[in-house]
Design brief:
- There is one protein chain.
- The chain has about 280 residues and is α/β, with parallel strands linked by helices.
- The protein has ten helices and 14 strands.
- The strands form three sheets. An eight-stranded mixed beta sheet has the order 5-8-2-1-11-13-14-12, sandwiched between helices.
- A hairpin with an 8-residue loop joins strand 6 (about 130-135) and strand 7.
- Helix 4 (about 65-75) packs across helix 5 (about 90-115).
- The longest helix is centred in the middle third of the chain and has 25 residues, at about 90-115.
């Protein structure tokens, strides 16, 4: 599709009121899934983050790295095991999680942002006690439940013009260990602690669908009082339940808007943030 100069100018003009509304505000983006694996989508997400930062929006990136962890475990001959959708994390797996998330994935993401013209700084959840956790349940191994968030290191990065890139490993407060943290949960907790304007979860689905087999049944807006009914009716099920729970908890604790966006759509963040056309599910 080709655009005339006038059409391009109209797109920019449409973005202006949104740039004005969100200038100086903080948004937290949970980055993962297919948008992290596909090089084309990766470039689109990175450029979206940089553009938002350049127009004065304070962007915080929280990332996962499940496929990379699985790949590294495979290299050492260790099979990935999941319990209730969470990666079972024994001591050996925790070592790999920490190396991959805090090292390879985090630093590669920071390097890509910097190379494409952004100013990014990597943070691990254990830096300055950013995420402090206790063991969630023995059946999951070293999977943690965040009890304390210290947002100051993230605020310091933002105040100095950097895009913080946060890996989801937490410092144990009930034992001398690190804990593996679900990235959606970490992003939601951090959004609350930062008094963020928005929490955006990038996923591999269109959003919340009334019929999971029909993308035309996308629910564009859902209010908190509708969520229990949607769960009861089976509209919210499976892997979508914990994502919705994160959004609900964020809204209850003061984040005005949360979004579940399809990371498979190039520039989905910009479309949602800076245009009249919402493309995911917004929870208010």
């Amino acid at each position: 599709m080709s655009y005339t100069h006038v059409e391009r100018a109209q797109v920019l003009a449409e973005a202006l009121p949104y740039i004005q509304e969100f200038n100086g505000k903080t948004i937290v983006i949970k980055y993962g899934g297919n948008a992290m694996i596909s090089e084309e989508l990766r470039q689109a997400v990175i450029s979206d983050i940089i553009l938002l930062s350049l127009v004065g929006i304070r962007v915080v990136v929280v990332h996962g790295g499940g496929p990379e962890i699985t790949e590294m475990l495979g290299k050492i001959g260790k099979e990935s095991r999941f319990v209730d959708g969470l990666r079972y994390t024994d001591a050996e797996t925790m070592d790999i999680v920490q190396q991959v998330l805090c090292g390879k994935v985090n630093k590669n993401l920071v390097a890509t942002l910097n190379r494409m013209g952004g100013q990014a700084m990597g943070l691990c959840g254990m830096d300055a006690g950013l995420f402090q956790a206790e063991q969630l349940d023995e059946k999951y191994g070293l999977v943690g439940q965040i009890k304390v968030v210290n947002p100051q290191p993230v605020r310091d990065c933002l105040s100095n013009g950097y895009i913080p890139v946060v890996s989801t490993v937490a410092q144990g407060i009930d034992a001398d260990t690190a804990y593996n943290i679900n990235a959606d949960t970490a992003a939601a907790k951090l959004a609350v602690a930062l008094h963020a304007e928005k929490l955006i979860l990038l996923t591999d689905v269109r959003g919340l669908l009334r019929d999971p087999h029909d993308e035309e049944t996308l629910i564009h807006v859902a209010h908190l009082n509708e969520i229990p009914g949607l769960i009861k009716d089976g509209v919210i099920q499976g892997g979508m339940i914990p994502k919705i729970d994160c959004c609900v908890e964020s809204v209850r604790q003061g984040v005005p808007r949360t979004h579940i966006l399809d990371g498979r759509i190039p520039h989905s963040i910009l479309i949602e943030m800076l245009s009249d056309q919402g493309i995911g599910t917004m929870i208010l």
